[in-house]
Amino acid sequence: MKNDDITKELRQLIQLDIDAIHAYNAAIKKIEEEAIRSQLTRFRDEHQQHITSLSAALREIGGTPPEFSPDFKGYIISGFTSLRSLTGTKGALKAMFSNEKLTNEKYSEAIGWDVQPFIKSIITQNLEDERRHLSYIEGTIETMR
Ligand SMILES: [Fe+2]
Ligand SMILES: [Fe+2]
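That is the input. Now the predicted structure with fe (ii) ion docked in place:
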């Protein structure tokens, strides 16, 4: 892959993780069960680590990472489900399930990119986290039926 294409794709992947953090923050507010809330908080922090590691890789190849804005103005990645109108733990988890399906899809795509090995290993590690996030959320929804 050309360097310009890699930087463009990495910026989008970072943006995806930024959107995920905003979605998690909204979900965490709607969840009353302490155990679920703390698990989602850990997942949110893992997305922060994804941003940190991908941003470092991007800088190393001459790119500029997108800025993280703490004031939420709406998701940039289309397909992210807003949690604004949803209530309750199950509603929040269902929205996060579809959001994490999207992160899993994008990271699965990214794993096939022809990029430097150090970038590939970051993507591999992040994808493992994303799979774990998705399966926890799926399993938790199952127990609430
Ligand atoms: Fe992530
Ligand atoms: Fe995730």
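The two ends are 45 Å apart (CA to CA).
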